[in-house]
Structures are given as structure tokens and as C-alpha cells.
Amino acid sequence: PHAVHLSDYAPYPFVIDGVELTFRLDPGRTRVISRIAFSPNPDGPGHSALQLDGERLKLIWARIDGAPVEPRITPEGLTCDVPTGSFVWEAEVEVDPAANTALEGLYMSNGMYCTQCEAQGFRRITYYPDRPDVMARFEVTIESDAPVRLSNGNPQEPDAQGRARWSDPWPKPAYLFALVAGNLTARSASFTTRSGREVALNVYVRPGDEDRCDYALDALIRSMRWDEEVYGREYDLDVFNIVAVDDFNMGAMENKGLNIFNSKYVLASPQTATDRDYEMIEGIIAHEYFHNWTGNRITCRDWFQLCLKEGLTVFRDQQFTGDMRSAPVKRIEDVLQLRARQFREDAGPLSHPVRPESYIEINNFYTATVYEKGAEVIGMLRRLVGAEAYDKALALYFDRHDGQACTIEDWLKVFEDATGRDLTQFKRWYTQSGTPHLRVLESWEDGTYSLHLQQQTPPTPGQPEKAPQVIPVAVGLLDPGGREVVPTRLLELTQAEQSFSFEGLSDRPVPSLLRGFSAPVVIERASTAQERALLLAHDTDPFNRWEAGRALAKELLVDMISNGTDPGDDYPGALGKVIEDEGLDPAFRALTLALPSEDDIAQTLKTAGITPDPMAVHEALNRLAVACARHLRAPLAALHDALAPNGPYTPDAEAAGRRSLRGAALGLLTRIDDGSRAEAQFAQADNMTEELGALTALLRAGKGHEQLAQFERKWSQDRLVMDKWFSVQVMLAAPREACEIADRLTAHPAFDWKNPNRFRAVLGGLAANHAGFHAPGGAAYALAADWLIRLDPVNPQTTARMSTMFETWRRYDADRQDMMRAALERLAAAPGVSRDTGEMVGRMLG
Ligand code: B3K
Ligand code: ZN
């Protein structure tokens, strides 16, 4: 399989004046009739043969300007000689949705037809220039007995034969095409845009699920209003449809006017969804809706520009959640995610720039780097130019590029034009991979405090040398009593080394560095536990308050692991002050109470030059949790009692924050009590947050087997809840039992391994159990590899994505490295390994 390079971009020789598609739906033999009007592209290379992408299609006939033609067909597409000037291509192809287990193109899920085209699925529907810079208006006709038949754009009157018709007035690339047909039922509402357009909103689900749509609908309405108020963006069609699908490779898809969602991110009721599920639904509904402008109206020229739409849309959905809920809490959650996924990726063999330069399979680049680091880069840009200039630049972006397929150069040019700033050096954030490390040295003399900052980015695949980046470092200073003496100042580090001074201070200050996590970097600074405790108690920046607690925990854990020290009382004592501070948001207190993950500690050790032993990491975290629980037993019990539900469940941030603090308290208490507190909560819970919270507290403490069985009996008919049942028991299993439990679950009658959610629940759950995955003997590696090998021919995309469970293999000792390498090599050698998985494994093995 050959690599595609950014530097090879060339415009398509033709433009499309219009597309008409007719679908005759049939599970095993769907016919797709296309009529596409082509003209020469004035910006193209001149006259050429017509090349269309197409995979797994059976061509029935093809015509140009009404005359039959016989194109040259390969497994990737076709080539056909065409007249100079404009012409009309028509073709009929046959596809087999029922046999499509890859869930790309047109496929079936529980008897309903649906599509997934991004990035290159449309070529499995019909022959077409399947690239994002070819934009066209689509008219779609659907012939099917299904009561609901949907496509993009606005619905039209059915035709004379009763076929459904859709017309999308907005030119779009093929990756935004969608079609859905089946026995569905809708929950509906209506939204009036600020210019007075009446929009019908529908959430389509399987009959029986209609009472679980209200939250998604409400989140959609709030998203539409927010985008008008904050970005001045209005919706542009008469309808906005959302469809929930059980079999889906990822979270959701922003198809124009017809978003398709993994049902997990639509359906919610208090009994079946946790607070976390509600927050995810709100965020993903917003994300897909926001794509209507950042992605659809302005799209990407080619797939290397993916972060143009994804980084920006993630940044927008993060802002939205910050506005809907608590901005500091959201920031902490986002940084937790960034470190857990993106820093992990950037520290290993899969590290790549936010804008990659080559790929074999583009689906492998829908990564934490493109999405989350892509969003961080926009956050830095906004910090550097200021909120007002950011708004001005965005207004110019929408104005200048509406209807176009753009590049990162276009995006940066907008900021340069709007602000007068030169962004040449800033652009390195898009082209240079790896997480910069920021070394901080300090000096203090005659009332002047100086910070000496040094930046250094470790080598990453293909990039041994790094140039200095523009790093915005937000800094505040506290005096030794904890009073802020210098409020937040934004330092701009542009060189490899640079100093910044603060004058006129009476005492040597304690710095609060990188406030709000102002740049996605790793800070290296020798600091004392006293300083950390001071910041945890007094910093005015909520992010850094939390960060101080986190740093304390990490340093303590590293010390416990490498020197065998005891947890001591300082850390639990500092935590105690935070959790008892009634002036602090409960959600914030819950985040402070949570310990770092085992994977995070393993990475921290590695960065410090220590080879992590997963069992020792697990054991140290347990010891620290038990120490905290013992030290804080009384306040934790008081919190758990005081935060007991005092009314019916509501999913809002405030109520969720109280539940998360209550859950964190229960988790710790259950480690040291007889489990009765969690058992009582499990028995009394009237919502999934409390029910699952109690169950996970029990499982983590090695208890709860009875409750697990009860949970299964209660929820056996509910697919989404059963995913939770499958995953928690693997994720929270004792290290030496995890693999066996996962193995046993794969033999459970409800283990439908072709369903991505279910597969992820068990095998993803195993990988998420750090000590369980890396338990001595390597059985979990082997089990995971067996299942990936089995899934690959069925669903390459999900297999490739899940293969990243091995991306950290070089972190560990020689024995584990050998076993993980063997697992990867076995995967690479699987007969007919997919392009997707082959590329991932190849990169991981280096
Ligand atoms: N744009 C889609 C992701 C498509 C992934 C294709 N492998 C969802 C999103 O980011 O909103
Ligand atoms: Zn997106």
C-alpha cells in the first residue's frame, strides 16, 4: 500500500455542476444510479481522462452524454476517456449493505440502512471523485419500503412512484453525504433562528427508545443558540435530523443536515445513563452541530488539513461546555484527556504533527493529536492575540472562506490579516510533532524575581531535530503567605531559552506557572511539597490549584515506587482541606480527590528515566488511596451522607458535581470499609450514576460479585447498559484476574464482537486496566492480539484504532517489550492484514 503525501496535492481536473443519486435499497443488492455533470476545472491541469474512486462496487452500466462507455476498472476506481468541455456521467452500481461489516459506506445496523462516508466511504457507494475539495449539490431519491427515508438537505415531495426525495442546496464534499432508511421513530422540536428561519429538529431512534431523546434534543437547541450568540453562526436548512445507530465505528458524524450518531451518544435516561454520559452527549451533539460551519460550510482542501475542521470544532465544543457547565472543571477534564491520550501518543511511535505530512490510511489520523492538540493550538492562538482579535479573525474566516475547501495556510493568513501578527513561527505547532518540555530555573535578587525558561522537544519519528516554538506561558506570583502579588501575565517564549523578570517584590514569590494550562507542554521544575501545598490551598487560578494537588500526588507516587517510602500524612492532609472547603465547587473537589491513573504514573516514571513496573504502580496507587481513605474517613463519610440525593435526578452540572464528589468519597471509603455503604447505595439508587458508582466502588475493592450478577439480570435487555456491565468488570478486575475475566466474557452469549461498542467494552476495558493488561506472563497481550486478528478482516477501522493499546510498548521492561512486540508482529503477519491495521502496526514497530 502506498503513502499519500501532502506535497503531492494537485487540484481535480473537473468541477461538478450537480449530482443526482437514486437508491433502490435492498439488503443484499442495493442499486445506486448516479448522474453527475462535470466541467473542466479552470484551476486544473487541463484536459485529462476522468478518474473516479470506487471500491467494492459492481458496475452494471456506465454512459457519458447518454452513450454507453466501458471504463478501465481497478480495485480502487476507474478511468474513462471523456470529451473536452462539459459532459454528463451516468452509472448504475450494485452494493451489498448487509455484508458490509466494516461499517464504512452503506451498511445495515439492526435492519436499518445507514451510511458512514468520512473519510473515504463514499467510494463504496458509487464511482465518484471522493476527495473533500470536490464540492457539489446533491439531489437524492430513495426507493424503499422503509417508513423513514432520509438524506441530506431539505425534504421534497415524494415523486410519482412514491419515492422519497431530498435536495441539498449547499455544495458539499462526498464525505458529508448520508442516507438512512428504516423503521424509526422521531422525537421532534422546532428552532427559530435569529433571522427567523423555522427549523424542524428530529432525533430518530428505534421504536422503544423515544423516551431517551429529550436530553439530546435539548443539547441541540442550546448548541444552535450558542453558535448564534458566540460565533454569529446561523443554521441554514429547514430541517436538522439526528439518527442514533447501534453499530458505529466512532462517536458521531456531521453529515450535512443529517447527523448520524453512535446511539451511546444520543440515548439517555436517568436510569440508564451516567452523568458522564450526559456530558458526553451534550458535547458531541454540540460538536457535530458546530461542524455545520467549521467543516461543512468551510471544509478541508485535502485530508492533511483535517485539524482545520477538527481542532477548531473541538475547541468550539470545549468553549460551549465551559459556558454550559463550569469552565475551570471543563478545562481540568480536557487537560486530563489531553495528557491521557495525546501526550501518550506524542511520547511513542505514533507521534505525528497536528498536520501530518503523509498517510497510508487516512482513518488512522483521526487522532488525539489532530483533535485535542489541534484544539490546544487554537486555544494558544486565542490567548496570544486576545479574545477580541480572535473573534475578529473568526468573522473574517467565515466571511472570506464560506463555501471553500481550505488549508491551514488559509486559516493562519486570516489571523495574520486580522491582527497584523506574523505567525510563521507559530505555524510550527502544526508541522512539528512531539510535546515540548519546558525547563524552569529561577533566581531572586534585590526584589527581582526572574524566570529562565528553556524549551526542548524530544525527537519523534521522522523529526530528530526540533526548532523552538511560540509558547504562551501564563504566570502569576504568590507571596509566601499565599497572597497573589502579581496577577496573571502572559509570557511569550519564542526562543530556546529566555528570561523574564518581575521587579519590586518584597519576598521571594512562589510562581503559579502555565495557568489554565496555557500551552500543551510538560513543565519541569524542581519544586518543594510546601510550595505545591501552598498553591493547592491558595492559587487564584483553579486549574493550577488542581494541578498542584496532582503534582503532589505524582511526586509522592514516584517516591513511593522508587524508594519504597510510605504515603505519609501530608498529601491526604492537603486533600482534606480542599474537600472540606464548602466554598469550592463539588465537581472541582471531586477532581482534586481523584488520583492520577496508572497509565499516567507509568508515563511519568518513564519521563523521569525509570522503567515502570505496572504491578508496582498499581500497588502504590492502592496504598496511597487507602492512606487517603484512612486519613479522611470521617470527612469522606460526612460528604457521602450530606450529598445523598435530595430530590429527583437532574442531569445539570451542579447536581452532577455533587454526585461526582459523593462518588469519589464512596470510592475511597469502600477501600477500607466492609462494603456496606456501597451496597446500600447500589440497592437504593434510582439513577445509573449512583448505581454504577456503587458497583464500581465495590469492584475496585474486590467486592460486588452479587451486585454484578444483579446488574446483569436487571439490564440484560439494554444494550448500552450492558456495555457498561461488560467493561467495568474487566477494567476494575484485579491485575492477575483481568485477562481471564475478559476471556470469559468473550464467550458470553451477549458478546456480539462485531458491534464496535461491545468489542471496545471488553477488549478496550482490558487495555484500560493498566496492571491487568501488563500483568506478568503476557496473557492479556496475547488475548488482545487474538481478538484484533479476528476483527481485522471484519472491521479494519476499529481494529486499527484499538491496536493503539500497544503504542506504549517501548515504555516497559525487556520481557514485556518482547511479548508486546511479538503480539504486534503476529498482528502484522496476519494473512491479508488490512491497510488500516498494517499501517498502524508498521508505525508502532518502527
Ligand atoms: N468527522 C467525524 C469523524 C470521522 C472519522 C472517520 N474515520 C466525527 C467528528 O469528528 O465529528
Ligand atoms: Zn469533528
UniProtKB/TrEMBL annotation:
Keywords of this entry: Aminopeptidase, Hydrolase, Metal-binding, Metalloprotease, Protease, Zinc
The keyword Zinc is annotated on this UniProt entry: yes
Domain Peptidase M1 membrane alanine aminopeptidase: 215-429
Coiled coil, from the record: none
Classification via InterPro entries: Aminopeptidase_N-like_N, Aminopeptidase_N-like_N_sf, PepN_Ig-like_sf, Peptidase_M1, Peptidase_M1_dom, Peptidase_M1_pepN, Peptidase_M1_pepN_C, Peptidase_M1_pepN_C_sf
Boundaries of every Peptidase M1 alanyl aminopeptidase C-terminal domain copy: 530-845
EC number: 3.4.11.2
Catalyzed chemical reaction(s): Release of an N-terminal amino acid, Xaa-|-Yaa- from a peptide, amide or arylamide. Xaa is preferably Ala, but may be most amino acids including Pro (slow action). When a terminal hydrophobic residue is followed by a prolyl residue, the two may be released as an intact Xaa-Pro dipeptide
Molecular functions per Gene Ontology: alanyl aminopeptidase activity; metallopeptidase activity; zinc ion binding
GO-annotated biological processes: proteolysis
Name of the protein this chain belongs to: Aminopeptidase N
Species of origin: Profundibacterium mesophilum KAUST100406-0324
